């Protein structure tokens, strides 16, 4: 128990420097101040000064000692010094900036009781300022273990309201370790696709030379971004991202991801019931398990159409496909048809009134390993539209038709060739319809 008279006596020592035996030069030019102190009090109350004074003890001479403290503002130091003498803490200005500055000073001087007191004061009475200065608090206290109470409190606020961090100007200047510590939290309340976009935005901001238009990026540009966000990728829940957002936000940056991870993501979204062999991070606590893929996948879905047109048909070889024998009882009212084309293998399949998208996908899966790109965005859109028509017209799409349509030495590179190529595909479709009638 601290008696009032005892505190007043030590306050007299703080005010009266008659018996002071040490001069502290606090601050840096031009903002410096000489402060007279009593070394025994500093030795007893501050482990920092205890270590410094013990080191000076062997060098003490008869003349007065002077000690520089350049890492601290004089006004902030005086408020901490008063607490060292009197065990009372007061502020001249009633704002949180003084609190944080004094907390850092108390940590530098290793005054543990003041560290605890200031942290409690900020958490209890400075909520408004705390929310407005989360990034400053977080960055200032990241490497100060004794201030973990306030640091963890700031992290929990960021996790519950991450838009405060992700929309701040300081976000793009964060160190990668800070960003990892937030992204890896299970209680982060934010959609996974939005987190991925924030990470990409942060990674691009680290390299000002990267073009704004991702469509113009070179492999070297993607490699630069990949190296920047590499430590963060393991903590993003990619398998919790729905297929529609996967197509829009992940596929354009597929070169940034490890190839094995990207292949597993494709299989996860394109194949119903696929279970990845790699560990999958669970949904965050604020989210229910995401319905990241459709229960009844459709070939005409944007994700599948985009992937097929970009990756599956360029330089596709003609391959003989051995289909499993189907029983007569499976489709009793359907006819069997033999299709033969010059230079192509023979296929024996059953024509259905409404062809199953799933069966068509089984044929297309043989083409997943070809990664050649189509020659232009216009061609990709045109082919995607043609594939959509084939499905809507209930045209039976076989590997023979696909190979003949896309196994060309040179893909069209201008509007004239694109039109000619489109007419050629229309003819192939008409031939298929004619074969069905016969």
TrEMBL record:
Pfam families for this protein: BACK, BTB
CDD domains in alphabetical order: BTB_POZ_ZBTB_KLHL-like
InterPro entries reported in the protein's UniProt record: BACK, BTB-POZ/Galectin-3-binding, BTB/POZ_dom, SKP1/BTB/POZ_sf
Signal peptide: none
SMART domains (alphabetical): BTB
Region (Disordered): 281-301
Domain BTB per the UniProt entry, residue ranges: 20-93
This protein's name: 2113_t:CDS:1
């Amino acid at each position: 128990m601290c008696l009032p008279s005892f505190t007043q006596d030590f306050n007299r020592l703080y005010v009266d420097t008659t018996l002071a035996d040490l001069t502290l030069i606090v601050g840096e030019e031009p903002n410096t101040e000489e402060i007279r102190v009593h070394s025994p009090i500093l030795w007893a109350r501050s482990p920092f000064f205890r270590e410094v004074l013990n080191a000076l003890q062997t060098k003490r001479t008869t003349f007065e000692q002077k000690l520089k403290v350049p890492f601290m503002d004089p006004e902030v130091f005086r408020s901490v010094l008063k607490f060292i003498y009197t065990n009372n803490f007061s502020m001249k200005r009633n704002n949180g900036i003084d609190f944080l500055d004094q907390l850092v000073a108390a940590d530098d001087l290793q005054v543990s009781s003041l560290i605890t007191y200031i942290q409690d004061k900020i958490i209890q009475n400075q909520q408004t300022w705390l929310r407005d200065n989360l990034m400053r608090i977080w960055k200032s206290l990241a490497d100060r273990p004794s201030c973990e109470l306030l640091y963890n409190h700031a992290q929990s606020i960021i996790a519950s309201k991450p838009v405060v961090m992700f929309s701040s100007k300081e976000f793009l200047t964060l160190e990668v370790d800070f960003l990892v510590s937030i992204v890896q939290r299970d209680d982060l309340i934010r959609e996974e696709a939005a987190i991925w976009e924030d990470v990409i935005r942060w990674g691009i901001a680290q390299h000002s030379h990267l073009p704004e238009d991702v469509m113009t990026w070179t492999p070297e540009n993607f490699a630069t971004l990949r190296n920047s966000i590499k430590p963060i990728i393991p903590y993003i829940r990619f398998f919790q991202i729905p297929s529609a957002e996967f197509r829009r936000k992940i596929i354009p940056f597929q070169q940034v991801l490890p190839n094995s991870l990207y292949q597993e993501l494709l299989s996860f979204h394109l194949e119903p019931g696929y279970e990845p062999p790699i560990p999958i991070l669970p949904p965050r606590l604020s989210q229910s398990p995401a319905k990241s893929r459709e229960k009844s996948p459709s070939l005409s879905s944007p994700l599948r159409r985009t992937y097929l047109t970009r990756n599956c048909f360029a330089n596709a070889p003609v391959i003989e496909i051995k289909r499993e024998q189907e029983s007569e009882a499976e489709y009793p009212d359907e006819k069997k048809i033999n299709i033969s084309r010059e230079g192509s293998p023979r296929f024996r399949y059953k024509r259905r009134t409404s062809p199953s998208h799933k069966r068509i996908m089984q044929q297309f899966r043989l083409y997943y390993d070809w990664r050649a790109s189509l020659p232009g965005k216009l061609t990709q859109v045109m082919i995607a539209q043609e594939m959509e028509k084939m499905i809507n017209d209930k045209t039976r799409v076989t590997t023979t038709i696909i190979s003949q349509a896309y196994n060309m030495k040179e893909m069209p590179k201008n509007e004239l060739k694109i039109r000619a190529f489109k007419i050629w595909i229309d003819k192939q479709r008409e031939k298929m319809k004619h074969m069905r009638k016969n």
